User: Fold this.
Amino acid sequence: MKKTLFCLLAAALIGLPAFLTSSSVRADDKTKDEGRLENAGMVIKEILDIPDDIPQTLLDKADCVIVMPSVIKGAIGIGGSYGRGAMTCRSGDNFQGPWGAPTMMALEGASFGFQLGGQATDFVLLVMNQRGASSILSSKVKLGADAAAAAGPMGRDASAETDVTMRAEVLTYSRSRGLFAGISLEGSTLRPDNDANERIYGKKIDAKEVALHGAVPIPPSARVLISTLNQHSPKNLSK
Assistant:
């Protein structure tokens, strides 16, 4: 009996360091995810506070917004992963409500690697319709193939009625060294980051449940992101 107890105790002690290490890694990853949400909030606030960046008419017609803060060229080649950020959508079946809890997202692909110039680059993507939102939240989507994408026009007087803008499901922008511009991300892919969602919300949860069905409350780290969008674009004017 004593021998059995000794063996069980020894096994538990052997497994304890691995358990503690795993818990520490998960805690570190959650802190990074929360930092990304906070940075996404700062990025969108800085961009929307300048009226000549994203045209108000386009923001008011967007169903969802994706923010990828501080994507760095040095990330190229590391697991094929280029950027991590968040996607938030207007709540309600027809995207008519206030902006809701964000789902974590991953941006991948080689098509824009040469454009980063070694500098940290922020990306903002406007998702302009329900089909684009549903596709992006369901699985990995290739921009330009699975979802029509175009470099977003700029300026308060920029036309939002051009053929490219009208056809695009996703309009894409970048900011690097303080310079803001529309940018083509065709060939890159977007996918839900379900592992990050689990860390942020404390449970396995589908990206659609987070972004479209209000299944979880807005986490504290995303409050600036959501409040800024609600302040600058409280109503969906596309319907």
Observations:
- The chain has one domain: 38-232.
- DSSP finds seven helices and nine strands in the chain.
